[in-house]
UniProtKB/TrEMBL annotation:
Pfam families: ERCC4 (PF02732), Lsr2_DNA-bd (PF23359). Residues 133-214 form the ERCC4 domain. InterPro entries: E3-bd_dom_sf, ERCC4_domain, Lsr2_DNA-bd, Restrct_endonuc-II-like. The keyword DNA-binding applies. Signal peptide: none annotated. It comes from Pseudonocardia yuanmonensis. SMART domains: ERCC4. This is ERCC4 domain-containing protein. It comes from the Bacteria. Keywords: DNA-binding. The lineage of its organism: Bacteria, Bacillati, Actinomycetota, Actinomycetes, Pseudonocardiales.
Length: 331
């Protein structure tokens, strides 16, 4: 999310003689973010930075370096900085947690591996989430089970997409629309996919996953392959933020959906914290509220928690209220 068009990054000498961080850097984002830093650019190793208030920038700063910038963009809890010069162009200021506390590192592609000290990278679990809850659209036929992953599923009437995850505030932060090859071809031909992308665009993050490889489009006999290929290209140009991903098999499409939704859930946590830190408009601001649970889901939850409910028919209002209260506490 682009917050401002940048002019230059300023590096000044820290006027505090007792500080172990000899430089101050001022990032032209959110009114000017100021950090104490160990060096003027992450050339050989990631630089530890200490965020300070904007008032710590000296009135008559001793400027050491002015770095003209092509862009300065916040993406979640990181700031991507691109310098307008031939060498040492790209760097990133990362807000992370290490050794039990929040830390900030300024890194470059060369020093990227050093920027996550004492943070264990995820292996099987996507984005390090112990157990991910995925909402499955109630109208989805033969849905993914995610049986090989740490996932729990619940059926809901989703406003768009077939699979979705909720953020900490109980809003839908991401969704995935699943397509078989036949469904993809027909929905591109009759325009249904265009309307589906319009709805998906209302979410902070969304994607379309296809259970087939791209080359299969050109093996169609009842529709001109070029028509489908052109239609997909047009949709990607109109909605570049919603990727259409082709996977070779249904199993790979299920795996990709799991990884995408887990990454989106992790991003939403970072985005919420970053929005509080940087201010400005967050990508989560207009996220829609979670759809209400089905009666069957509330009935199942009530029985699991020792609440007596009938086998059929409506549930008492207090049962629904208990479900809402429990999930508010969980969030």
């Amino acid at each position: 999310m682009r917050e401002t068009r940048c002019v230059e990054l300023l590096v000044a000498r820290n006027p505090d003689p007792d500080s172990s961080l000899p430089y101050l850097i001022r990032v032209p984002l959110a009114g000017g973010l100021v950090f104490r830093a160990k060096d003027t650019w992450p050339r050989t190793k990631a630089i530890y930075c200490h965020p300070v208030g904007a008032d710590e920038w000296p009135t008559e700063a001793e400027i050491v370096e002015r770095v003209a910038l092509k862009s300065c963009v916040r993406r979640g809890a990181a700031i991507d900085v691109v310098a307008d010069r031939g060498r040492e162009q790209r760097s990133q200021i990362v807000f992370t947690r290490a050794r039990g506390r929040e830390m900030v590192f300024w890194q470059s592609p060369r020093t990227r591996k050093q920027a996550r000290p004492d943070v264990r990278l995820p292996t099987a679990r996507a984005s390090g989430i112990p157990e991910l809850e995925i909402l499955v659209d109630a109208h989805e036929r033969y849905p993914y089970s995610f049986s090989g992953q740490q996932v729990t599923t619940s059926k809901r009437g989703l406003p768009c997409g077939d699979y979705a995850v909720l953020g900490g505030g109980g809003t839908v932060v991401a969704a995935v629309e699943r397509k078989s090859l036949a469904d993809l071809v027909s929905s591109v031909s009759d325009g249904r996919l265009r309307f589906a992308l319009t709805e998906l665009a209302t979410l902070p993050r969304a994607a379309v996953v296809v259970e087939e490889r791209y080359s299969s489009i050109f093996k169609q006999t009842y529709v001109r392959p070029a028509t489908i290929a052109d239609g997909l290209a047009e949709l990607q140009v109109r909605w570049p933020a919603i990727p259409i991903v082709f996977c070779d098999t249904r199993a790979l499409a299920e795996e990709w959906t799991y990884r995408f939704l887990a990454a989106a859930r992790s991003w939403a946590d970072d985005e919420a914290v970053a929005a509080d830190r940087f201010g400005g408009v967050s990508a989560l601001t207009d996220a829609p509220a979670a759809p209400p649970p089905s009666t069957a889901e509330v009935r199942r939850w009530a029985r699991e928690n020792g609440i007596a409910v009938p086998d059929k028919g409506r549930l008492r209002p207090e049962v629904h209220e208990a479900w809402r209260a429990a999930h508010r506490d969980h969030s």
